[in-house]
Design brief:
Blueprint lengths: L1 H11 L6 E6 L3 H15 L5 E6 L6 H19 L18 H6 L1 E4 L4 H12 L5 E3 L6 H8 L6 H15 L8 E6 L10 H11 L7 E4 L14 H24 L8 H19 L4 H13 L10 E6 L1 H5 L7 H7 L3 E3 L4 H17 L4 H25 L10 H8 L12 H13 L4 E7 L3 H6 L4 H7 L4 E7 L5 H22 L1
Parallel strand pairs: 1-2, 3-4, 3-5, 5-6, 7-8, 7-9, 9-10
Helix pairs in contact: 1-2, 5-9, 5-10, 6-7, 7-8, 9-10, 9-11, 9-15, 11-15, 14-15, 16-17
Length: 499
Amino acid sequence: HSRLYSAANFVRERDNLDLIQLNSFGCGLDAVTTNQVQELLEAANKVYTLLKIDEVSNLGAARIRVRSLMAVIKDRQAKNMHAKTPEPQSTRVIFTEQMRKEYTILSPQISPFHLDLVGPALNKFGYNIKVMPDSVDAVATGLKYVNNDACYPTVITIGAIMNALLSGKYDLDRTAVIMTQTGGGCRSTNYIALIRRALKSANMAQIPVVSLSAKGIEKNPGFDIGLKELIPLVNALIYGDLLMRCLYRVRPYEQHSGETWDVYTKWNNVLAKEFEQGNVSAKKYCARIVKDFDAIPTLDVVKPRVGIVGEILVKFHPLANNYAVDLIEREGGEAVVPDLLDFFMYSCYDSTIKYELLDGKRKNKFASDIAIKFLDHMRKPMISALKGTKFGAPSAIVKLAEKAKHVTSLGTMVGEGWFLTAEMIELIEEGAPNIICMQPFACLPNHVTGKGVMKELKRQYPQSNIVAVDYDPGASEVNQINRIKLMMSVAFDSLFTKK
């Protein structure tokens, strides 16, 4: 991508040059570069032409596009039109200490179980974070501001952000946006740039966009996560994982409809109020939460357990996966969703893998080892409360990596990388061999370590029943439902055969 940007910069400074960008259909990296190259060229009054190349042999459309470009070039020459000197690119708006006191910070929804607690945990430190509610028209709005080659999570999150900003509920001169940023090769690293581009096109460039990243990719004086903020943030994630794990384990079997949700709502409200006052250690409530859910009367029935893995937003956001958990439960199954905190441990452990397999530095490995020990220590009360119960307990990230390396290389670290394979193995071994692997259409990491390992997983685990489901603005919801229902029918057959 950096070579593409260099080429665009070279072309826009010369009258006798124009540029045609070729990209592969479904290429995730090109989904980002097309926006940026277009912006660079149009800033210099140049014509941007993009040609998608796939297996279609009819090149008529490509010829028409090239002929149109040639016609525009000749017309510009006849009118003596020249490339203009591009204006300096605007610098990003910094989120300052003063803004922290006055601004509302909008956060897109990623996982309701977790962000319902993360927001109050951070607001205790003087922030005013508002998690935006689900919006059924988020996809339609997102497509107005992001090209449709961008991945599905980008479309949903930017659509939700723009819906909120266009609603009239917020003072646009006193509002900021926050978004996580991984810093790796995944397209999610580019969310920040794509959000800023959307804001600029809507004449809202004054709105600061805050990057929330463990790697500190961008600095903002008004938003700084230190140890005092990190501890309640991690505890909020731990409680979110626990509530999600307990709710999904009990609800399909409850004797009295709605009782499990009532217990969840009670604890979610208790925790949210306490996090607003200060930190809530995992030791305080984990055992009581497990006891409350375990006491809910359940039916003595056996149901197929269905694991949900995949790209992080599609996996945890009900709107993004078309409420897959509800569908599984309606079809008579039990949904099993791995913990969110494990993803952050995976991100930390990548520094160890880089040191052992690639060109990583020892100091980064040392820092990641400390981070993992810190997270493990904070999660101990949750694991102690879960041990020996029907809810199960999460495994150490080192054990997950050990399992994954027998199927895929641990060097695959883009996006969910090897962690996606590890989650599937863990689910199979823990009694949930039926798995839905969710990914945005054209998500390259998921195609490698999701779809790409299914054949080997089925060879090693013949009882596994895995289906890949793509989620995209243009994807057919009926097709998604039918694929899941077919997987469920196989799950029931295997269950009864086993019995």
